[in-house]
Design a protein that fits this description.
globular; mitochondrion inner membrane; respiratory chain; about 325 residues
Length: about 325
């Protein structure tokens, strides 16, 4: 753990540098330092570590190269100003999407996460999104492709996680879906940061639970004890955005903002696709819930099962209201 202190401090500092920078060169420098600081955190005892480190390095380097090239060549393009602005904006958004692992440039993300430990996965799904999303927020208001990108991210993230059995890959595809919602919200308001904070808190609790159980695949969740099953159920429902859980709040902010901006069709499609993500969230939690004889007996006893269901729903709401 002591050997990771310096990379973690460097990663935190570089992210804050990139997020608070006032020009694109400083943002690029901060992201490059962040890249070099995060790579040592990926290393573990697995034989697949070298491949995941190389995939992450190549993807991030490609995004950084496109970003830097676009920033430097901006004043040299011999095109009308309106065409320059649109082309430069699209190229810069492309570089950020590569860094985020957002569709259609997502192919490195699930494979990289599948060979990482849960600590690295937690960093990648939470803190590592802050600097790219801050840069994305400065670009999305001027771009015409953000709607397509958001819908593509939500669709691919929903479809990609359905047939997976690896918990890390399922969390990776779930991350893509939430990126689509965050990008949509970033085009309308600055509340995407609140979305990221709430999403990160849910992911941290869930990944910490998986780490504690040493679970990497769905079939390893069948031996979970009853308290952990209840916590997992609540977290999964929150990740799916079901009311009255905490995860519904950022999605409700996005829905409300889209309705006010007259983006009815886009938010309707994204809401329907969220039902598909809820399917593989339930797939993760139903195996341990149905494998326990205690839970099966409670399902036979309708009053006990109803009481358990009511408690699981109302407890998070009471915590939020308090």
């Amino acid at each position: 753990m002591k050997s990771n202190i310096y990379p973690i401090v460097l990663m935190l500092t570089s992210t804050m540098m990139a997020a608070s920078a006032s020009n694109w060169i400083a943002i690029w420098v901060g992201m490059e330092i962040n890249l070099l600081a995060f790579i040592p955190l990926i290393k573990n005892k697995s034989m697949e570590t070298s491949s995941s480190m190389m995939n992450y390095f190549l993807a991030q380097s490609l995004g950084s190269m496109i970003l830097l090239f676009t920033v430097l060549i901006n004043s040299l393009i011999m095109l009308p100003p309106n065409m320059i602005n649109e082309m430069i904006n699209i190229a810069m958004i492309t570089s950020i999407l590569i860094k985020l692992g957002c569709p259609p440039f997502h192919f490195w993300l699930p494979k990289t996460m599948n060979s990482m430990n849960w600590d690295s996965c937690m960093w990648l799904m939470t803190w590592q999104k802050l600097a790219p999303m801050t840069a994305m927020f400065q670009l999305t208001e001027k771009s015409s492709i953000t709607t397509t990108v958001a819908l593509l991210a939500t669709t691919w993230g929903s479809l990609g996680g359905i047939n997976q059995t690896s918990l890390r890959m399922m969390m990776g595809y779930s991350s893509m879906t939430h990126m689509g919602w965050m990008i949509t919200l970033s085009t309308i308001s600055s509340n995407w940061l609140m979305y990221l904070i709430i999403y990160s808190s849910t992911v941290l609790v869930l990944c910490f639970q998986f780490k504690k159980m040493n679970a990497l695949y769905i079939n390893q969740l069948t031996t979970v004890n009853k308290p952990n099953k209840t916590i997992m159920l609540i977290n999964m429902m929150s990740m799916g955005g079901l009311p009255p859980f905490l995860g519904f709040l950022p999605k409700w902010m996005t829905i409300q903002s889209c309705i006010q901006s007259n983006e009815i069709m886009q938010i309707l499609i994204m809401s329907l696709l969220s039902l598909m993500t809820l399917f593989f969230y339930l797939k993760m939690v139903m195996a341990p819930m149905l494998s326990s004889s205690i839970i099966q007996k409670q399902m036979k006893n309708r009053s006990s099962f109803t009481m358990m269901f009511i408690v699981n729903l109302t407890l998070p709401l009471m915590i939020i209201l308090i």
